[in-house]
Queue: 2 jobs
Job 1
Amino acid sequence: MTIRMTMPMIGTAQAWRDAARGLINANVAPCDVSWGDETTPAGLWDSLPPPRTDKVLTVPKEFISIARSVVWHSDPSRFALLYRVLWRLRDTPHLLSDRADPELAQLRRMEKNVHRCQHKMKAFVRFRELGSPEDPRRSFAAWFEPSHFTVEPTAPFFARRFGDMDWRIITPSVTASFVDGKIAFSAGQSKPPLPEDASEQLWTTYFRNIFNPARVKVKAMQSEMPKKYWKNMPEAAAIPDLIASAPARVRAMNEAAPTLPPLRVEKVQQQLARLPESVWSGDADALRAEISACTRCPLHCHATQAVHGEGPMDAPLMIVGEQPGDTEDLAGRPFVGPAGKLFDEICAKADVDRSRAYVTNAVKHFKFIPRGKRRIHQQPSTTEIEQCKWWLDAERTAVQPRAIIALGASAAQSLTGNGEGIGKRRGKVHLLDDGTPVVLSFHPSYLLRLRDPVARQEASELLRLDLTRAHQLAQNISV
Ligand code: URA
């Protein structure tokens, strides 16, 4: 007899968890369950309530995290797939570390789709004001068409960001409402007639201002802001005109620019010409082009260029720093300035061939304040690190390193989500959701700032040990 499990559109994550726990504790095999959601037509099978259980089921944290995302995917087979993997986990506890397993690979793809959809939702929902701005609590509504059922898991983000107003996000499947500080969900609706408001003009002006005609990469732009979202974004109407006028604006900018570059640029570029070429392979070009065109945060406005990672696209070890420094910003390559030189020395002592690792940064643009002729490094903010995590995640997905070393607090924050200083955490190994170990260590610039030679020597030795450990993890040598 087949048990039919119908998952609700609202509260799906908890419902799937309860149902899966009940079924597995009652020893119901995956082939005896038929999963669907409220949109799935009922079949001819028996419909039974899920077996009830209070028994605790222990599963790896990583699976819980995958399931928490995958339940919101729009593929009707997601619940059955999750249950099959859960069932297999009972006898194969190490299943999650099997990178070749096709069912796991499919789950990970679905997880990535859902994360991407949540990310697009955070970036592209556009609220329109209802009522009057003088009302004690202003109220807004937005229409959005996500590719997956991501309204419920993404609503807490909007509640945090727009906690001082009432809002509704209406989608075809679910509506999220935030009224007087409380989130509630109800059925989806068709597109309501929403009024235009002043913020539309604001979005368009903002977009015109951040649009850099010298960096127009239409393909990269469309991959970052897919066309299907344009119809609900007021600023999108400006895009065709901005693209069409870009060449003329670049010509005008060139004519207005000073004819001689600063002497320092020439000197740095001469030095850099002597550095060996970076190694790239695989799908690197597309990723590099996308990173170069990045305008996700205002840092791109002042930096010379985005500095993407470099190294083999199948490198077993990934090295993540904070952000390009002054020299890297001019060179367009990571870790080629003073901190990079010190890091090269430590690599040599640790017997790590840097050219066989993938070297990148948590933030891809140089953040600085000008002081006279100098550009003084500024630490990136949490928001900038968050914005740029998109690219670090893309690099991780492309390279799939076996181990990562995070140099300094910004890299550690991007990779682990924890922004605490590195002092207490150095030497620890953090496991990412996909099981990749991240060794936390000092940033070489920190060593450069230590005046006391003994302290510098000690810190440099610790960084060497951490690098050795990360290298061994990447080689699958147990440490
Ligand atoms: N510091 C970093 O974190 N990264 C670089 O690329 C250079 C200096």
Job 2
Amino acid sequence: MANIRILPETLSNKIAAGEVVERPASVVKELLENSLDAESTRIIIEVEKGGQSLIQISDNGVGMRPDDARLAIERYATSKISSVDDLFSIQTLGFRGEALPSIASVSRFSLITRDQSSDAGTEIIVEGGKVISVSEVGAPPGTMVSVEQLFFNTPARKKFLKTVGTEMSHIAGTVARVALGHPAVQFRLVHNHKVVKSWPHTSRHLDRIVDVLGKDVKSNLHAIELSQNGLAISGWIGSPRITRRTSRGLYIFVNDRFVRDRTIQHGVFKGFAQRLVKGQFPIAVVFIKIPFDQVDVNVHPTKNEVRFVNPHQVHEAVKSAIAQTLYEIDRVNWRPVNESLRRESQNASTVAEPMTPFTPPGRVTHPSKQAKFTYPEGSFREPATDNWQPASTRQQPAAGSQQPAAIRRRSQEPIFESTGFSALRVVGQLHNTYIVCESDAGLVLIDHHAAHERILFEQLQRRGADQQAAAQQLVVPETIELNFREAEILGQMLSDLKTFGLAVEPFGKNTFVIKAVPALLAGRDVKPMIREIVEKTAAVGYSPGLKDALDECRMVMACHGALRARQALTEKQIEKLLLQLDACDHPSHCPHGRPTWVRWDLATLEKSFKRIV
Ligand code: ADP
Ligand code: MG
């Protein structure tokens, strides 16, 4: 073996660059993080040829004094941590002290910086890791870093660069992610002298989210908020009706750092459970605040990954925060008339404007069906506020206290509108598959199979919960023969199936006898269903009492028991179906995630007919 020697610094920097600087977008990310750590409020990113000929980032942050500027381009030079303890409570985006020297080792690099207290700025020019000059220059307070001809001295890396368009889209994605997390900072992205993105500073986070994600999502965003076990989850999620084909609409921030984390992603999906069909990805911007000592950010040089001390807790918190919001926006008939105003007054600092709720089917004014709804005790104190009500009275506890005359008068009026399915006027059936309904807001179609599946699924869930199976004994018990593996699985599931009202008993070898079925499956051929249950639960991994496996069984049963498409329904059946749908916890999707209803607003219809333009 050859002699061992310490590598010269220019070489070790290049090696570090291999990890940190994968492509132009990585340079943008590192420089943006530095600008944010320097408390900038305005950052301009100028790029030429997708970042291959120039990346220049200027900020109005705290800048550096001349001696600090010199140090900044040294390896392991950082102002952000100084002890091992600091490493385990990192509050800045950077901390490794290797971005600037790494970038400077694979480009023609210049740094111009001036701190507030200095009269002049400092300019440092580095080429391929060699310092060419250090001089005093006139400069505004702040920092400007220019990176020209990235990878000019590492042709192997350069070869991997993609087209200008691809590299530019990576850069735009990077800037978008950073901008989402920092609404108070103004960002401008310029490519080949054209402004590509410009995000003004804003104090309202939602405005920035809409700016970045696009206006089309605006009316479909819903706030999430939850604090538990020292964790605070906040952010916005898109309604399950607007989804993406990839995870690109998913933004996760841990203590303001954008991260890619499978645990949290999984938590997001779990929060959306049963509302997305296979292959659909939700839109979500999730901010997680966690005590600094509960998360390790020093996992990878790119700092895109984190490790949690208690990942399960984070997973559950994210899941619950999302599930809670989706549950609330599904409460079509629990919504007080002024729900959006109530939310706004409670939440004025986080919600920019009354958000259009997950537009429920709407209401038909129908005096005989005027909903008489009462809230569960304690969940809602006072009829929702209107603008007429002075702000001070909003805070007053309502129960038993003196109410201003205005409130007393208002509370005589109906305060809850029935927006439930049973309040819709049924027009008829379409192709014996969809129930056609009229609402105040327009036209609603209900997929009766999907709706019925949802109803049966929740009935089975409740039944499972109180262990009272409404079973129907079979007059002539049926036998079913399975292969060895299937028999093995079914054998373990028998007691769980019994809680659903499905009584199956071993009958020697791989044969079983079906003695009773849930009432909802009466008269159906249950053998194919049992095979399907065995297959599906085997796929998720069966263990007794495991919620996912049980839900899988319920889903199969609900699907087999539900009204079929292309089936004529009587008026009574439809009426009952709508009432039962109202009673569901999650009425808007079938257990597989398909929507149970779709709506066309009058405005949309009128546009189609060119009544309005
Ligand atoms: P790190 O960010 O991990 O500390 P860097 O190599 O990215 O390492 O930066 C080294 C140091 O240079 C930082 O710790 C900071 O003190 C200083 N620095 C870099 N960029 C800026 C900037 N835009 N404004 C002010 N100081 C900066
Ligand atoms: Mg840095």
